[in-house]
Specification:
Structural class: alpha/beta
Number of strands: 20
Shape: globular
Bound molecules: guanosine-5'-diphosphate
């Protein structure tokens, strides 16, 4: 059985925690898109970890972790990440890397930085991990696949071709040092030696695992609204964040994904630029930001303060629909316990008209939030394990949102730990 765990919003919904929790019952956990640009924060018996490339199942010794073909694979970052968890006492995880995954090269990271520099104040707020240049090259068909590392002749010819192309931009657009084929070759051969022990035909491996009835989790990065097709283009990421892409980025049949658990946060947070209709500011925002997540809403990779806002039912309903949600995991609800009243964005006013369907970016930029206010529950709900034991106003908040988004909330997360979960 294959289940996907994906985000309904802008990312940072708590997918890492839900994956880590569900990985207990899983045999295989697969990352199918994205790269080391975002991170998952996980708190378990070994401590607190920020993972960037490894799937959130690496902490169990019974699971196999797969880096699928859809991932932007940064080999040194992956190897360092494996070492850093092993150094902290986690048993060495079993990791397989798709032979069809492509690699983030050091020049991708540089191009990302140079482009942000060039754009100055008009930048996209990239994390400068090379993700956009990487995916651009992948689709321009000038990327390096892991499998190519083992064919030196092909590599040699390709490094020359790539230097020629990249150097035009480096010289004339960015005015930066040029690339040299020999240095690129050295970088690639270094990657080959690091990754060799993990390389696998992962889609064949998964095909067999599915036939054997294994439990497989697909772990998404970011959320629906960062999808390049369906999100807030161009303030999106460069690979699809949707469960449907799980089939492609892992290399499995689409009909095998039978459960789609969409993680949806009890309030809104976002990093980077882009329209954010229910955003709040100043003192109100500071308070939510410092109380939010676990230890505040600051990026797991960059440490950047996240933008925060009230729950956005318009964006979340759309986010859940685009994922093909079967179950909603409603997270970080405990954080809202300090509020007397909790506003929820239930519609967008655009040019004098109120809509509840999420619009494309040009219209979104004009949207003003229509808020409805619910009473708070004014207490700490951490530690509660049964739905009936939640305060009445808290249940009302959950049920109100469930009705607005139109998908069943089957899990409520009321703390960052593995056991902080209420099943309905
Ligand atoms: P991801 O990228 O979707 O995995 O999300 P992140 O890991 O970046 O952000 C989620 C943050 O919220 C992490 O610091 C988690 O430890 C924390 N978290 C997850 N679920 C809960 C919850 O139910 N309550 C609280 N207070 N924190 C949570």
């Amino acid at each position: 059985m294959v289940k996907a765990i994906v985000g309904a919003n802008w990312g940072d919904e708590g997918k890492g925690k839900i994956t880590d929790m569900m990985a207990k019952e899983a045999d295989i956990i697969v990352r199918f898109q994205g790269g080391a640009n975002a991170g998952h924060t996980i708190i378990n018996d070994y401590g607190k970890f920020a993972l960037h490339t490894l799937p959130s199942g690496v902490f169990y010794s019974h699971t196999t972790s797969i880096i699928g073909n859809g991932v932007a694979l940064n080999i040194p970052v992956l190897i360092e990440e494996i070492q850093s968890i092993v150094d902290r006492g986690v048993p060495k995880p079993k990791i397989l890397v798709s032979d069809r995954a492509q690699m983030v090269m050091s020049y991708h990271v540089l191009f990302d930085q140079y482009e942000e520099e060039r754009l100055g104040g008009k930048s996209f707020g990239s994390t400068k991990s090379g993700i956009a240049p990487f995916y651009s090259d992948k689709y321009a068909k000038i990327g390096f696949q892991v499998s190519e590392l083992f064919d030196e002749e092909t590599l040699k010819e390709k490094t020359e071709r790539i230097c020629e192309m990249k150097n035009v931009m480096l010289e004339h657009l960015y005015h930066k040092p040029l690339l040299h084929p020999q240095e690129l070759m050295k970088e690639l051969l270094g990657y080959r030696d690091m990754i060799a022990p993990y390389v696998c035909d992962t889609s064949a491996y998964l095909w067999n695992a599915i036939k054997e009835g294994k439990n497989i989790l697909l772990e998404g990065q970011l959320g629906s609204l960062k999808d390049p097709d369906h999100g807030i283009y161009p303030m999106v990421t460069s690979s699809s964040t949707l469960a449907a892409y799980g089939a492609i980025g892992a290399g499995i049949p689409p009909y095998e994904i039978s459960k789609i658990i969409t993680v949806c946060k009890a309030y809104s947070s976002a990093v980077g630029a882009g329209a954010f209709v229910s955003e709040i500011f100043d003192e109100e925002a500071n308070e939510l930001r410092t109380r939010g997540g676990d230890g505040g809403e600051f990026g797991a990779t960059t440490g950047r303060p996240r933008r925060v806002g009230w729950f956005d039912a318009v964006a979340s309903k759309y986010g859940c629909r685009m994922q093909g949600t079967t179950d909603v995991a409603f997270t970080v609800l405990d954080v809202l316990g300090y509020l007397d009243e909790i506003p929820v964005c239930v519609g967008y006013e655009i040019d004098g008209e109120v809509v509840t369907e999420f619009p494309p970016t040009v219209k979104l930029e004009k949207a003003k939030p229509v808020l409805e206010t619910l009473p708070g529950w004014k207490c700490d709900i951490r530690g509660i394990r049964r739905y009936e034991d939640l305060p009445e106003n808290c249940r009302k908040y959950i049920e109100f949102i469930e009705e607005k988004i139109g998908f069943p909330i089957t899990m409520v997360s009321n703390g960052p730990g593995r056991d902080d979960i209420i099943y309905r």
